Amino acid sequence: MRIDFVEVRNFRRLDKIRIDFSQKTTLLVGANNSGKTSAITALRYFLILKKDLSAFDIPLTHWTGIDKLGAFFEKGEPEDPPYKWKDLLPSLDVWLNVSEGEIHHVSHLIPTLDWKPNEGIGVRLQLEPKEPAELIKSYLKAKSTACETLSTKQANDDEGAGQAERKETCKRFALWPESLMHYLKQRMSSLLTVNAYLLDPSKKAAPKDGVAQPQELPDGAEPLDENPFKGLIRIDEVPAHRGFSDYSTTSGDGDVSEQDARGRKQVLTAQLRTYYGKHLDPLKAPEPSDIRALEAIHEAQIIFDERLKDCFKDPLCELEELGYPGIANPRLIISTSLKPVEGLNHQSAVQYDVAPMQDKNAVSPYRLPEQCNGLGYQNLISMVFRLISFRDDWLKVGKAARAEGETEGHLIPIPPLHLVLLEEPEAHLHVQVQQVFIRKAFGVLRNHADLKDDSPLSTQLVVSTHSGHIAHEVDFAKMRYFRRHPARNPGETPTSTVVNLSEVFGVPDETARFVSRYLRATHADLFFADGAIMLEGAAERMLIPHFIRNHYKKLHSCYVTLLEVGGSHAHRLRPLIEHLGLNTLIITDIDAVDKSTSKKALPQKSIGLITGNNVLRDWHPVEDSLDKLLDLKEEEKEKVYGDSFGIRVAYQTPVKVTLDEKDGFSIAFPRTFEDALGLHNVELFRDADGLGLIKKFKAAIVNNKNIPEVHRAMQTALDDATKAEFALDMLYYKDPESIQVPEYIRNGLEWLENILLQRQQEVLMKGENGTAAEKGPE
Question: In this structure, are 646 and 720 located in the same domain?
């Protein structure tokens, strides 16, 4: 048994999304505020902590609808309300994949007599009023009371000076509840509940344009009587906030209670103590192997009691001299109660041996408590130990089974599915540890003899992350990308959809293999960026970040990833970019080619040259004529995909170059980034001191009389040059701020800056009037 997919509806910025679960590890990725945390939170709330759902989990867009619903009932119209509760409140649909041999687990969830296992089992968890009529009745009563109180106050106001001002103030002032949404903010936990409903497998529908299509429940559908997943799914989570603190937060040698009062959090000690209590404590369901330990504890207790009796002999004698205990009073006895678990209840229960002895059996005198280790290793140890604990709790390892009351004749069944939610495992971990952890995490959850390949027990791990390093260690087909969408109408909030990257990487064709290998080789943070720049070569990769830093301050503050991919391969990323919906600037070379000989040529107009660039020919603008490409308007270089995102190409365009003021300017047609840079910076190279191409460009400018000759000399120099060395020389000999950015790159960077700022402004402007941009968690 496993979860096929879940559909989240009306939860924060998640309007209607579908998350397909892989069989083992599912990785949630996306830029900041794209909804990853909201998705994990929705799973947590609906599956574990239903009472934690609050009014702020309802999308802000639906607050207006709830208020309209309240206003409708205030008018006394009992029928045909403008909205249904289920259309406004959050819900979670869970679809299970069940095999023939597991039908007995889901017998209470089979929807019809002709149901077949391959159809799956669907359950909706819906937040809704416990009693809709009672909710409206209680709201109207509270609203009526507030209105009567305000009316009485206004009637009693003295007439005279200031009356107009008081009336104006009263218009702006209102008692609770102002509206139905205002009422729910305070009373939601007592008025709303999560009910479960069976879904119809025949009505399952695939998402459209990334938007989930959850089925509508029939009118009069009856909720299930109890938790539908009880005994089916064990759910554990490792939240993002794991409560670590370092040693500097405390001082002194106080006991554990004193340290806790100062805010100290001994996470590892608490985890070990809990694990010991559940699975290892010899006092719980003792076995023959525990007898020796229990005898030792008993003997120690007797010896300690004798020592206490001897120590307290004199004080107790003094007490007797005062007349206690006397004749009828009980005698005072001092005794101990030693419990094994209490041996872990102190600040040094977990220690680190910082100077191990050569003799492994020897006790090292150099040990430090857990708080003295780095936060990264504390986090790593804690996460791994939690996964171990989750697994052993699920399987009832050790004492856990008998502690729950199992006997030989009465075994408590183990849930067939174990779902583990893990948020942001990268916290405090350096790159290599992140990668090792994500590779091993699922293996830790399955590292038990009862969980081998043929086991009927399943485990699914769902991880949310902001780390590109973790993303590169997971098969891309197992990743789910949260794609942000701007608000479509005034007063609405931005939303997100989820892209199943198996649609891009799931088919093992040449393109999918290339994209996967390329992303793993470059470690691009493509899945976490606001925008992307695809570059032609190494020189652009080195210099363009400096152009952005020095000339495009606003763009420099955006989250933009740079991908160096040659013109012959850049178009292969098209399916991925279009699935991600990422605003992308493609800076490429025009690659002029003689059509008759298929050889490279210097760009010129009106001689029938074509481009050899696959991006320009096959992606956008889908044109191979060099003349048409050179005449293309700047706005025509953008390809818009609906209203959500676009891509833009930037390639070399004609340049007005002045070699000598008295001769005026000439038109040059650069072919590559390097000669475009040279032609835009004639004066800089004329006065430059440097080696390699810098020296050759200077010679081309100084030793030639006109621009065509200068350009040919630059092209000759480029034929046998190392372009990466040219970029390094430019950074070494020249301040990047003094370099003129080639016009085609400047236009492209301005486009990307404007479109990313526009996306930000859409959120900010709607947020300012209080109707859109969501604050707080994703």
Answer: no
